[in-house]
Recover the amino acids of this structure.
């Protein structure tokens, strides 16, 4: 009787495996063949956006390293699970495998191993963080970034193209500001906020930093690819947080200089630091155009 039961169980198991394969295999094939070129490119970068700065590639290396570490730990753990499931599986209905409550060497291993993993990841994270936040002695450009509810003011400080003056561009939630940068020339950002905490983020920099009232945060990047990139606030800062968007334009030097001259011609001279100088304290009408 028990033989018949086991046979039936085996047959049931086999049928279930077949059903799972029949459902999963076509789904997997469909998912793989359905990938567009963009998706494949994005997968190659492990989900990161196109990297547009040289500091971004350092963070990319940390990202890839972390995935490799996670992969190795995953393979090791899955291997142990599979080994335990197969080696110590219940073989018949009468006997159950030995029930063990604890195993000291294994307890020690899975206490110490995570500590080592965290320490190694912490070391590399700190090393990368120090590198990307390193002060650049003599950057080609200095841009003061003011994040205010609910837009950005970008001031280009002491640029030769405008006779060493400061010129600025300011946005509103209805009219997004542009941040112009020169390909291959290092720029240092100084981040200021007159109101609440914002976060200055252009995903393609693979880098973001909080903009904190009463504090001057700073970092430098060297754009490596001309083009237009999205920028946004990455800190929930209030009602119109989602409209704190901007466009990063990485251009050549001539186009950059011409843009600064346009700003000066428009009378946008100076480096405004607070909401009271900007046009961004808006009512609902300005946003919706009512
Ligand atoms: Cu914000």
């Amino acid at each position: 009787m028990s033989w018949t039961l086991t046979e039936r169980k085996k047959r049931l198991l086999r049928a279930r495996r077949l059903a799972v394969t029949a459902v999963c295999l076509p789904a997997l094939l469909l998912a793989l063949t359905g990938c567009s070129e963009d998706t494949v490119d994005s997968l190659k970068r492990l989900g990161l956006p196109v990297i547009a700065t040289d500091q971004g590639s350092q963070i990319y290396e940390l990202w890839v390293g972390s995935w490799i570490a996670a992969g190795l730990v995953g393979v090791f753990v899955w291997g142990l699970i599979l080994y335990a499931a197969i080696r110590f599986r219940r073989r018949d209905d009468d006997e159950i495998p030995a029930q063990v409550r604890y195993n000291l060497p294994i307890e020690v291993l899975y206490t110490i191993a995570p500590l080592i993993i965290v320490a190694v990841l912490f070391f590399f994270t700190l090393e990368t963080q120090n590198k990307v936040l390193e002060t650049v002695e003599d950057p080609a450009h200095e841009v003061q970034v003011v994040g205010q509810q609910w837009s950005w003011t970008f001031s280009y400080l002491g640029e030769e193209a405008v006779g060493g003056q400061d010129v600025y561009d300011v946005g509103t939630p209805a009219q997004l500001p542009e941040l112009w940068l020169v390909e291959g020339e290092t720029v240092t950002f100084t981040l200021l906020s007159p109101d609440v905490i914002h976060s200055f983020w252009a995903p393609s920099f693979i880098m973001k930093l909080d903009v904190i009232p009463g504090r001057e945060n700073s970092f430098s990047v060297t754009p490596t690819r001309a083009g237009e990139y999205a920028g946004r606030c990455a800190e929930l800062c209030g009602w119109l947080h989602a409209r704190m968007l901007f466009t990063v334009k990485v251009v050549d030097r001539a186009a950059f200089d011409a843009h600064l001259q346009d700003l000066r011609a428009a009378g946008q001279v100076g480096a405004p630091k607070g909401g009271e100088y900007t046009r961004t304290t808006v009512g609902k009408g300005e946003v919706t155009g009512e």
Observations:
- The beta strands are 141-148, 151-159, 165-170, 178-182, 187-192, 198-202, 207-211, 217-221, 227-233, 245-251.
- Residues 11-44 form one domain.
- The mean pLDDT is 86.
